[in-house]
Amino acid sequence: MIKLAARAGVLGPFLFGGVVATLTILKYDFLLSLGWDPIYAPTFDWPSGLALGEFGWIMTLTFLTSGLMLALFASGLRLSLPPSQLTFIATFALSLAGIALAGLAFTTDPTTLADSTPATWPGRLHDLSFVLLGLTLMPAMLLLGFVFRKAENWKNLSAYTWITVALALPAFWIKSAAFYIFMLAVLLWSEVLALHLYKNS
Questions:
Q1: What stretches of the chain show up as alpha helix (H) in DSSP?
Q2: Is this prediction's pTM over 0.90?
Q3: In whole angstroms, what is the distance from residue 128 CA to residue 147 CA?
Q4: How crowded is residue 119: how many other Cβ atoms within 10 Å of its Cβ?
């Protein structure tokens, strides 16, 4: 179970990052038509807007798959860490973050149509999932930093986890080009933890 979870954790960030990067290139003009700008409006319907239009199903499937992989990874992480209430809370929050990421598979409503078109129920669920992701991922990482301090095989990842949060949290809320830092930092953190879990399972 732990080995399977570790493999899911290793594959998930590569899948998500690779698909987002590829679709951003392929759908560049389409994203611009939505109001997105890579420098001045990087979070304007991105990456959610990649699920709209041509090849949108690929992003939808990626949201769902990556989220389930993150939830599976969180379960394996819980089994490998010293059992405690804090371990359970931290990994449960990470599992919820995975479910929230999977929830982004509900298709977003284009922001440019918000004033002229009523919100759809998939769009509302997408927005709710995004909020849930923000409310669970960062707390999970913060708590895991404390859990790692008490685990002999994970101690060296405690400070790294908190540094990642320090970099990612402001970028998540600022909604500028710094959002790229948030995504890169979190994907890299996930990859490092998954590789560590794989080597120690």
A1: 2-26, 28-33, 56-80, 85-103, 121-149, 158-174, 179-199
A2: yes
A3: 28
A4: 12
